[in-house]
Amino acid sequence: MKRIILILSILSALVISCNSKQAPTIGDKPLTTIVPSDDKTVREGTLLSDWDGSTQSLAINASVKVNNTSDNNTSSANDNTSQGNTQTPEGYNLLQRLYSTTWYQSEEDYDDGRLETEEEFILFNSASEICKREYENGRIDGRDEYSTLVWVDDVALDVQDDKKSRNACIVQNKERYDNDTEYEGYYLVDRDTLYIVDGDTQDEVKRKLNDIISGNTQRYTEDKFVLSTKALN
Questions:
Q1: Rounded CA gap, 89 and 86, in Å?
Q2: CA distance 151 to 173
Q3: Dihedrals φ, ψ of 141, to 5°?
Q4: pLDDT given for residue 81 in this prediction
Q5: Nearest to 90 by CA among 26, 154, 12
Q6: Model-wide pTM > 0.90
Q7: Is there a contact between 148 and 174 (Cβ–Cβ < 8 Å)?
Q8: Cβ distance 59 to 40 under 8 Å?
Q9: pLDDT tens digits for 18-76?
Q10: Helix, strand, or coil (residue 77)
């Protein structure tokens, strides 16, 4: 009798294991670790727990620099190794300041009378790498996509405050597993709003960024991401 019960337990465990590999699972939706700096002279962002929605404290930034040893995205041994931590005369580029941030967008639609929800998360780690993760109706949809990013150029902003003039840039995106390469453009509108566009060439990405910066945002609603600062229902 005990042998039969043991066999049934093993079979049940195998069934659960197989199902978990085949079906998408419910996962914890990631929150950002850092609220990025929008000041090109300050690389360090603000810890989410210290973020009040608007201000940036230099004291808080210093504590982030010392204590930011955990990474909520992909594993990394060195802090922003591919971009370096050295400030240039022009200041820190946007890619350097997006470390340990998490962004998301969501959309809702009805399919056969049922409300369907799709969410996409973009996770930057501390080594200029990103992970893209999708959820459908609260469940992880497919596998995470990993890429390495290399800063290429800035798209200068004509703003009154020169400290915010480096809040748009072009990067080279290299997918980790199939070696596909494309270009992406990032535009930090404010500390919790980021546009991400892509293209086959730098010129294509630059044109899109300049279009958004000039105010033509309606055609780029699918490229707008917000900082993941609270759990979604």
A1: 10
A2: 9
A3: -110, 105
A4: 37
A5: 154
A6: no
A7: yes
A8: no
A9: 333 333 344 578 999 999 999 999 999 999 999 988 654 433 333 333 333 334 443 33
A10: coil
